[in-house]
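Project standup — Tuesday

K.O.: blocked on the structure for the chain from last sprint. Re-posting the sequence here as requested.
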Amino acid sequence: MKVKNNLLLLSFLIAFSVLNAQESQNQSDSTPKPRFRDRLTFNMGGGLMLGTFTNINLIPQIGYRIKPNLIAGVGANLQYVRDNFSFPSREFLVYGGNSFVRYIVNDQLFLQTEYQKLFSTIGNGDYVMAGGGFTPSRYFSISAFYLLLHPTPNIYGQPFVVRGSFFF
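H.V.: unblocked you, prediction finished:
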């Protein structure tokens, strides 16, 4: 199972590389390259699930625009979780880091893979997710991911993750 998930993640990354290689062949080398700071992207993502299972998630990320439609970067994770499904109920903080690769399909759609290393009082774990998102404006997106790899217990409480993000 773990090998299957790693191969799936690797195939996403290879597909992104191939698509970018094809695009770069079509572009002229005479166009000036943007400055380093102009290639940086900043994103404040997060998720909110309230109810019997509560998960409040903040994910600041910084990315580097490798190509006009390919961004890779790193970020931090901070989550508060309260699980009233369990008996006794439990409450804990989760923290860690992440790395991601985002392929921009067009002005409104993107695909993304993400690796997270998370630490909490209920255990540490590696999470690998893949999905995509919709960007209705230049400053906001909503995305959905499927967890390809996660430990048990899964701090998200389900195999899907939905988040909203603000770009600046």
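K.O.: great, moving the ticket to review. Strands lie at 40-49, 53-67, 70-83, 90-104, 109-120, 125-137, 140-149, 160-167. Residues 2-26 form the longest helix (25 residues).
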